[in-house]
Amino acid sequence: MLRSERLRFRDRAGVVEPSFVQPTAGRLLRVEELIELVVQHDGQRRGELEEAIEDWLSDATQLKLWRGLTDLLLGRCRFEVESPWDPVELRRTLFERSAARFPLALVPTRVERPTRASLVEEVASERGCDPDTIETALYADLEESQRLLGFERPTAQELLEEYNLALCQGLLCHASELRVRLDAPAPKELRQLFRYLRFFQLMFRAERGAPHDTGRGAERGVRSSIETREGESLTLTIDGPGSLLRQSKKYGVKLASFLPALLLCPRWRAEATLDLKGQRRKLELHPDLPLQRPYRDRGTWVSDEETRLRQRLTSDFDDWELVESAQILTLGPQEVTIPDLTLRHRPSGGVVWLEIVGFWRRDYLKRRVEALERSPLPLLVLVSSKLATDETKALAGQGRLIPFRGVIVAKTVIERAAALLGV
């Protein structure tokens, strides 16, 4: 995704319009020149490559565009430290030797005082190499000294497509909320989308819509500008990084990374509320924009916490079993969720659903508590306490919410599940 200083857009009456790049013949030729420049620097230092790029950009117009494309190309490069010795250990050896013989002379003198050059020669002699090799290896771990040892070369067309997507992703990093409306989604589409929501650990709520619903009235958080088609719709309200007080940058990257997953859906519209330089703006996204789909269905992702919980539940409790399910649960008139796990009590046949929540904030937990209080469904919500404050710790322990830190205690889950079923 693009950094804030690389974002190009127009602001029209509070609506942000990304400045998408068009693949004209002339622009494709220039992009191919830039790609070839990177290829020509294979095996060279990063500093040399960046210097060559700056020379190439010296006569370019629309510098913000070209610097954004350059950032994407550098992101496809693999730079590595190329040194026969660990640069940190080599510096330590030289610095310790310098300190032991302090003060050093700037140039050789009649007085027997070592110089920097003589110490480098001494270390080189001990390691069986020339002083220039030591000088090169001494700071080989600095970014500008790392060598270009791999490059995932795109075509000019692919790079421009990546740029357009990265432009929207960069804007989403400034979102306080993203509202997505899916028109008559198929169950397979929903399961795939929810897998990505879990993979990126995004905070969201899902609400069912009615046929021909215009987005007004009952559905909270959905503006009338989000259109619908015939059939039942589903609205996702996803919290953005602007709604968090901590770890907002990391969360923003996760939200931006979710956008390609949304492109897999055939019928959708989205609206993001942005905070750009202290001003609230709106970003509208839809399938007609020039955005390509870089993601494929990669199967079901499972977090480390869920993996360990699965192992404990299947090995330590004979009366309980895990059942694979992708059922959509209705928590209220319009709020829905898809649980991570389905836990079945063998003797009674009763079922308890488990939802695992990584990122969250107080309002999100409060909505979940209220929804659970209204719903008779046997649902337990397992909440990470990594982001907890004194105010939210008490909330995380209420009702059917189970807090955990790092490891989910299977015994606690079974005890609460048994209490829900009365077994």
Can you tell me about this structure?
With 423 residues, this protein is of the alpha+beta class. The protein has 4 domains: 4-81 and 144-158, no CATH class; 87-139; 173-285, 2-Layer Sandwich (Alpha-Beta Plaits), CATH 3.30.70; 304-421, Trna Endonuclease, Chain: A, domain 1 (3-Layer(aba) Sandwich), CATH 3.40.1350. 39% of the residues lie in helices and 20% in strands. The chain contains 13 helices and 16 strands. The chain has helices spanning 25-40, 46-57, 63-75, 87-100, 116-127, 131-138, 156-172, 187-199, 248-262, 304-316, 362-374, 390-396, 410-421, and strands spanning 9-12, 15-18, 77-80, 147-151, 175-183, 204-208, 233-239, 268-276, 279-285, 320-323, 329-330, 335-337, 341-345, 351-357, 379-384, 401-404. The chain has a 9-stranded mixed sheet with strand order 1-2-9-8-5-7-6-12-11. A 5-stranded mixed sheet has the order 10-13-14-15-16, sandwiched between helices. A two-stranded antiparallel sheet has the order 3-4. The longest helix is centred in the middle third of the chain and has 17 residues, at 156-172. The protein starts with 8 loop residues before the first strand and ends with a helix.
